[in-house]
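Field reference: "sequence" (input) and "structure" (output). Example, Sugar ABC transporter permease:
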Amino acid sequence: MRNRDLSFWLFLTPVLLSLFLVVIIPLLYGTVYSFTNWNGLKATEFIGFQNYIDLFKEEEFRASLWFTIKFTVVSVILLNFLGLGLALLVTTKIKTNNLLRTIFFMPNLIGGLILGFIWQFIFISAFSSLGELIGAEGLQGWLSTTETGFWGLVILSSWQWAGYIMIIYIAYLENIPGELLEAAEIDGANAFQRFKHITFPLVAPAFTVSMFLTISHSFKIYDQNLSLTGGGPFNSTQMVAMEIYKTAFSENQMALAQSKGIIFLIIVAVVSLTQTYFNKKREVDL
């Protein structure tokens, strides 16, 4: 028993040490600096909550926060809908289900920056050419407006992450006892009734996990935002992560950027933990 405890802590120590050095210490230092006027160069001066007061006065920060919230709401709904739909498709008795799983998951293996540039080419060149061909003006200049730029980011995020969320739902769908579905079918329940009363309640844990992942992912998107729209036009598609980066490294207001980061962390933590709490209460145990 003592050897097991020793080996447990021996393997766990590097992880805890990395977490402490990479996450905990920078967070503590950043919290302290957020109460100063540090710009990355000169000595700091304690200014209290002034940075936190100033950040809510910034129209650009408020606009980026609102844009991020809208993007997160739409993306979370769409990703979970697509992920569950794809999972239901590939768990049916079709010969190509393994091939389809691979195809649907492959976009998640592409890096965010590369993915953004790929879709930028599709939206600008391919959509414009198609628009000219069929006479649809709405397909031209797809990333030149706030509305189309918003949906461009949603499409990109959904295409990349739908396969990943699909894998989570597959793991729970394949654990549903076949006897339950067979008994419901014998009793006369149609496909929709079996899904509503058996399948959906039993995959509720997957919904909790995927909601947590999609919320945290959607809130903190940076690289796709940078490569697809660059925050344009006129910063109207700029998400919070990009706005914080610009505050820190373009405007050299490190302390202000750190205070924005802390507020952002609190918002994401509250939203994620709240949805996890309420979703956990709806879960059904087998």
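The chain has a mean pLDDT of 87.
Residues 49-281 form a domain with the MetI-like fold fold (CATH 1.10.3720.10).
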